[in-house]
Write a structure and sequence with these properties.
- Helix content is 38%, strand content 13%.
- With 372 residues, the protein is an alpha/beta fold.
- It folds into two domains: 172 residues, 3-Layer(aba) Sandwich (Rossmann fold); 158 residues, 3-Layer(aba) Sandwich (Rossmann fold).
- The strands form three sheets. The protein has a six-stranded parallel beta sheet with strand order 2-1-3-4-5-11, sandwiched between helices.
- α5 runs parallel beside α6.
- 47% of the residues are buried.
- The N terminus is likely disordered.
Length: 372
């Protein structure tokens, strides 16, 4: 049976999951399979998540598995350890077992063309979860947040916090900003970036915001696999090479895991004292470590994406497909994966900073004691 994990205990518990025989099938040793050999194969949902190194993916997987099981399905929840070959092997195993539906948060959105062709041949339906799967017609639906809006929320937060007003080339006050983007193999990266740039570019053009590193193109700012350590190293390099006599006033970060690395670099460079305060640092996903950082006055903001609601959307989509109904969608034009426009249901994100972290408690996303 499934092992239920609270938010307080999720990370320590998953680290103790025994390896088992799944490793022999090419699956991640800590995958946490919920497949039972005596289960009815045509009632099982395969859930493929990218990694356990991020709190949010643990919660996404647990929420989805729990909700599918309440709806009467069995589930097989697997994590790919951010290795494409692991995720492909896990999906191949699910296809071989004859699952009815695959819900996939892809590690590399372009790496699943062949395996999803096999899923299609086997009559298995596919939901692309949060990250759009690219280059294949065999994606039925897409469930995600409005990631372009996530980027706009982050960009607007910086503008408002710096009190920039309207773009003005004659403005006397100028602020230094550095830009970070997500992984180049994640389709969401461009949506985050485009949303942020819609807000920030007029201020970059007016000179009110200055990128001293001159790294203003998407491919100069991407962080492979959204890795916090890589973000920390890049921030170290940016500070060393560009901020000897000046301070950075804001850092655009599209994900909390990057923000934590960026903050580590800033603190190592002497930021975070009364005389040398930290810059504005954005983030996304409202991960517990970052929310605590916000309460401490370190990270400044995060985009709140309620993964319980996203899991619910995926479950409703899957149940509708498997019962002969048409899933509800709210976007049928914007998510072209190169082979088809994938019908999508997008959720609206919110913004959290030190002034409203209680929102996360009021909505039940965290318990009050977790934030202390």
């Amino acid at each position: 049976m499934r092992v239920r994990m609270s938010r307080r205990t999720a990370i320590p518990v998953v680290a103790m999951v025994l390896a088992g025989s799944l490793a022999a099938c090419g699956q991640e040793a800590k995958g946490g399979s919920r497949y039972h050999p005596d289960s009815a194969k045509d009632n099982t949902i395969g859930i493929a998540m990218p990694t356990k190194s991020s709190e949010r993916w643990i919660l996404d997987g647990e929420n989805m598995a729990g909700q599918f099981e309440k709806a009467g399905y069995k589930t097989d929840l697997q994590y790919g350890d951010n290795k494409v070959e692991n995720q492909v092997a896990q999906l191949e195993n699910m296809i071989a077992k004859g699952y009815r539906l695959l819900v996939i948060a892809a590690i590399d959105g372009r790496a699943l063309t062949d395996v999803l062709g096999r899923a299609h041949d086997a009559g298995i339906r596919v939901i692309s979860y949060d990250r759009l799967i690219l280059g294949t017609p065999y994606v039925d639906y897409y469930a995600s947040f409005d990631n372009e809006r996530c980027g706009r929320v982050e960009g607007q937060y910086i503008v408002d916090k710096l009190r920039l007003g309207k773009p003005d080339k004659n403005a006397e006050k100028k602020y230094n900003i550095e830009l970070f983007a997500g992984s180049p193999d994640d389709n969401n990266t461009k949506y985050f970036w485009n949303g942020s740039m819609k807000v920030l570019k007029p201020y970059l053009d007016s000179g009110q915001l200055v990128v001293r590193s001159r790294q203003t193109r998407l491919n100069q700012t991407e962080i492979l696999r959204w890795d916090g350590g890589t973000a920390q190293k890049r921030m170290d390099d940016l500070l060393t090479k560009n901020y000897g006599e000046q301070d950075v006033d804001a850092v655009l970060s599209p994900y909390d895991g990057l923000s934590i690395g960026i903050l580590s670099a800033l603190k190592s460079a002497g930021y975070g004292t009364k005389g040398h305060p930290l810059p504005i640092v954005t983030g996304s996903d409202a991960e517990l470590a970052s929310v605590k950082s916000i309460i401490r006055g370190e990270q400044t903001q995060t985009v709140f994406k309620d993964t319980r609601k996203l899991a619910k959307v995926a479950v409703q989509m899957g149940n509708a497909m498997l019962t002969g109904k048409k899933p509800e969608v709210n976007n049928t034009t914007d998510y072209d994966n190169g082979k088809r426009v994938v019908p999508a249901y997008l959720l609206t994100p919110g913004s959290v900073d030190r002034s409203n972290t209680d929102l996360l408690v009021r909505t039940g996303y965290f318990k009050k004691g977790q934030l202390s």
